[in-house]
């Protein structure tokens, strides 16, 4: 009965899921692979390259570049990792007493203090309630632990929503351009259509509702059912923090057009400008008078960013409001197939949303660490932005928030020609040359999307402050040479 | 009124089709009852620590230190952390620049993957390449990634054992593929029947389905059978001739309760068979920290190892892994510790060995107690749990019980399990959640409740079952 052709193994490139083949993720793409190869070369032959080290400015991974974790958080997590420690008197000699207290409280919420057990598929109830209380304290509006789904980072939560929403390539999701390429990749993986809306570089990456309307109508005219709007606030890679009025218009737009609002708010604690504040979309919606029944809204948060930067822990959640019980059941069902997210990450999410308060023993040192990191990030954002803007042929919007700068490269025809000859996009060509000359790794703007004919790179603000001057001078040196080489 | 995108009717159909009974109807009902104050014994999921199994001490010490590396500078650290735990924490921290809080390589920390490769080499006697080992947030994520890579459309079929762990059916549904069932032979100790397998494949092909892969769970879940070397050989030959990639779910490889058929990995058998099979058959093997005697379900640590996949395919799998950035780092460290545990001579070795031995011996005992307990019940027949963590007794429901179930609008085994739950607080998963032959009913329970609770649990079950049978069958024939 077998008609199989022996010698043609089943899992080759031409027999893979085409959606897998289609998706792209530049943050860890080609340029990073190249950097890793160069790094290996450096290890073998320290003098073989014009630089001493590779500086990974491609990924929002603060602790890999020397940022220290928040001590109190790590104390609590450590105790929860080994609850038997709490039964030893010697533990008081090693851990602060409020961390011990907090660990007790957290373990009380976990049946049997068993941090190694699968939890409820939405996450441990007591921790979800704590997170909800944190959300309520932040926004001034009620939040329920039943609406929280704790996930291994915010990314799996995004995937879950795409899975739910996308039925075929006729389902479209409105995404900002430039965007964090998780969205484009996820949409491709789930077989949907990305409907781009362009942020306006001239106005500090402004998000205009007119642009949303225009793109929505165009998509609809092509037979696409637009299902949701993704807004990243603060923006990635663009760093803009939306103004309240702007957010209100966005909420109204979603309401009027019947779209689910997917609010990526993972950078909510990374704000570097005095005149802007983070307002959650939930708060904005409730301020406008929309209740749980009026507006489907999914808000994503993560432990990877902010001042805590705990990327490797894979902690995060989505707060899901405005859905029918039947739909909630479906979300729960999908979550249950993976059983649960990692428990340590769940605990960390609750710490992030309910950190030490005034009066706690660790409060002062916690605040010192927190403010130290945030103020340093603000200084680095400014220093790098000014440096980029000081260079011929580069303009750079301010990083109001998040962790990135997205300078625009005004490349000459000659440079563009050289890129074409090399068979790469101009920004990828620039990024490769930058890497090879300086060891600095950035991500080409094409990885995020940009207005056609414009070129950018995304560079993080995360190298430690004492490295920034050297980075700036190396970059400057490279760029000036590059400009001279390719003068028209 | 215009339909809203997240109205139930507007959802992705593939999502709606998904079933995952392990946390389905019975579990939800049990949780409700628990909220009302009823004592529930959750035997629905392989979750050892939730039923009182203690975590192994050494790994917890190591991870607690990695979590708070500033402790290493504290002069008092030796008061509660033994020297080998301290050394091991330093070992992993050195492998993870940036510590636990940095995204690692998307495939996992290279040093840990090397430890996994060393473990595999030691276990099987064949070299293993760390570049072909990817760490994942639990084995389930790895399974999903691989299935997503294989399934292109509804005409791609995946051979799945029935009964199976419903991750497979759920994932196939989610990715829009076709499940091609092959039935395990209950009378032959849940053995594989190649005649039946060939039949299933032929039938699928006649319907226009391209069968792409075969899932094997060894030891089995829910069935617990341990495959013999001969059977695995036959399987590999079959995959070779039928052009299938073998997906070997080996997460229970440390849970073996008989000595006739120790665990042997699919990869070892493949390499033992030599060429051409050893070069040609595509194989992906899965493992986890959630089972064995570790039971660290909540850490979400797992890996898959790829054998004979073309480099370009591996690149695509890497690409998709990179979108998720990296698996959680503490879970990776647990994996490293599991494959590279304390050795004789290490300070913590004796305690570690004693803890491990105690858990495994107790599991073996409980496997026997549960099998024997079920077999002593009226109309219940139960194969021995040779491995894994479950018991899957067959419940021979009398016709009147089946009718009562129909009237209640429930599948017969769901009906039985709900009644069992309400009467005894024992929360199981009906066999229909795993698949079974038409008209044959089972339930899955775990062997995980504490040893000292076993007599009470088994007698509670027996009382319920025998009364149930009495009720629906009348007096037993003498």
Can you put this structure into words, describing what you see?
The complex is a heterodimer of chains A (488) and B (478). With 488 residues, chain A is an alpha/beta fold. Chain A has 2 domains: 13-66 and 371-485, Aspartate Aminotransferase, domain 1 (Alpha-Beta Complex), CATH 3.90.1150.10; 109-352, Aspartate Aminotransferase, domain 2. Chain A is built from 17 helices and 14 strands. Chain A has a 7-stranded mixed sheet with strand order 2-8-7-6-5-3-4, with helices on both faces. In chain A, strands 9, 10, 11, 13 and 14 form a 5-stranded antiparallel sheet that branches. Chain A has a two-stranded parallel sheet with strand order 1-12. In chain A, helix 3 crosses helix 5 (97-108). Chain B folds into 2 domains: 8-52 and 356-473, Aspartate Aminotransferase, domain 1; 95-339, Aspartate Aminotransferase, domain 2. Chain B has 17 helices and 14 strands. Chain B has helices spanning 13-17, 25-35, 57-67, 83-95, 110-124, 139-150, 167-174, 194-206, 229-242, 266-272, 277-280, 311-323, 329-339, 349-375, 399-407, 412-424, 454-473; strands spanning 41-42, 133-136, 156-162, 178-183, 210-217, 245-249, 283-288, 302-307, 380-381, 390-391, 394-395, 426-427, 429-430, 443-446. In chain B, the strands form 4 sheets. Chain B has a 7-stranded mixed sheet with strand order 2-8-7-6-5-3-4, with helices on both faces. Chain B is globular, with a radius of gyration of 23 Å. The mean pLDDT of chain B is 94. At the A-B interface, helix 1, helix 3, helix 4, helix 7 and helix 8 of A face helix 1, helix 3, helix 6, helix 7 and helix 8 of B. Chain B: InterPro entries: ALAT1/2-like, Aminotransferase_I/II_large, PyrdxlP-dep_Trfase, PyrdxlP-dep_Trfase_major, PyrdxlP-dep_Trfase_small. Chain B: One of its GO terms (biological process) is photorespiration.
